[in-house]
Design goal:
Strand order of the largest sheet: 1-2-3-4-5-6-7-10
Strand content: 15-25%
CATH architecture: Alpha-Beta Barrel
Order of helices and strands: EHEHEHEHEHEHHEEHHEHEH
InterPro entries: IolE/XylAMocC-like, Xyl_isomerase-like_sf, Xyl_isomerase-like_TIM-brl
Shape: globular
CATH class: Alpha Beta
Keywords: Isomerase
Radius of gyration: 18 Å
Structural class: alpha/beta
GO molecular function: isomerase activity
Protein name: Sugar phosphate isomerase/epimerase family protein
CATH superfamily: Divalent-metal-dependent TIM barrel enzymes
Number of strands: 10
Length: about 300
């Protein structure tokens, strides 16, 4: 058997998402101590902060808890609705600042930015039109650039915008439109392989076409059969996850080996954080999956 080429520029990690964590506080989620114990036990070094308030927000406490488990933080995550224009800036910045300050204190270099959902994540009720107007696109791109500039100047972090199902930055067309309208110096992309496939995109093609814009990776796969049913039934993202649309690699799509090879070929260091959406899930389910996933990624050279 041929040994895979080492992916020397890819830094593998995992996230609270892979333990079914979507909220700062939810009785159906594993306690944060268990997440930290298990993510370290599964062989990961890097983690994300997850929803603000799930992990301790006191940097001294979090540094002690992560440090004694041999863990380091790669990024924080924020949700934004910048297409709504300047009226939402102050509220957005208050949310961003808390996350960015903690990420900076933990030595992270990135802030993952997820656009807001156009339909309710649980009920599927439309919150707004699924297509943005030209004016909304200008607000989205212009304010995202402002966010990138201010996060960099105030916290020394680089924003990486995460295309996501049920948001306005989702498909190949919308991702290309977003990238073409934003300054590469201020705005990079967090390519989530699962969400991009969920929305019909080709991750390898995106890396090869917009390589200089790829600043971060989320490794995820979708089950194509479940996805077909989700699309046919117009199921919103939350219930789609409950159906198991995001699945354990290597059983889904896209194949991660060519994605990782394309990322390695960019010639830059990239985080590749495993994120298998599983909310809600049995608390004993995530750890064995995390162990198997880490073993699979090692077999890919990562």
């Amino acid at each position: 058997m041929t040994k895979p080429s080492p992916l020397s520029r890819i830094r593998i990690g995992s996230a609270p998402d892979s333990w079914g964590v979507w909220f700062a506080d939810d009785p159906r989620q594993v306690p944060w101590q268990r997440f930290l114990d298990e993510v370290a036990g599964a062989g990961y070094t890097w983690i994300e902060l997850g929803p603000y308030g799930y992990l301790p927000t006191d940097p001294a406490v979090l540094a002690e808890e992560t440090g004694r488990r041999g863990l380091k933080v790669s990024a924080g995550t924020v949700f934004t609705g910048l297409h709504h224009g300047p009226a939402v800036w102050e509220k957005t910045w208050a949310h961003v600042a808390d996350n960015a300050a903690l990420a900076q204190a933990m030595g992270a270099e990135h802030l993952v930015v997820i656009p807001s959902f156009w339909r309710d994540d649980k009920t599927g009720a439309a919150l707004e039109d699924r297509d943005l107007t030209a004016g909304q696109w200008r607000d989205l791109t212009g304010l995202t650039e402002r966010l990138g500039r201010e996060v960099r100047e105030r916290y020394g972090l680089r924003i990486v915008v995460h295309p996501h199902a049920d948001t306005h930055v989702d498909s190949e067309e919308n991702v290309a439109r977003f990238l073409d309208a934003t300054d590469p110096e201020l705005v990079s992309l967090c390519l989530d392989t699962g969400h991009y496939a969920y929305c019909g995109g080709d991750s390898v093609k995106l890396i090869e076409t917009y390589g200089e814009r790829i600043g971060y990776l989320h490794l995820k796969q979708v089950d194509p059969e479940i996805l077909a049913g989700v699309v046919a039934d117009e199921v919103p993202f939350g219930p789609a996850v409950a159906r198991g649309v995001m699945c354990e690699p290597p059983s889904g799509v896209p194949a991660l080996e060519p994605v990782l090879a394309a990322a390695q070929a960019l010639g830059v260091e990239l985080f590749a954080i495993v994120e298998q959406d599983m909310y809600p899930c049995d608390p004993d389910r995530p750890y064995p999956i995390a162990v198997r996933t880490r073993r699979f990624l090692r077999s890919c050279g990562a």
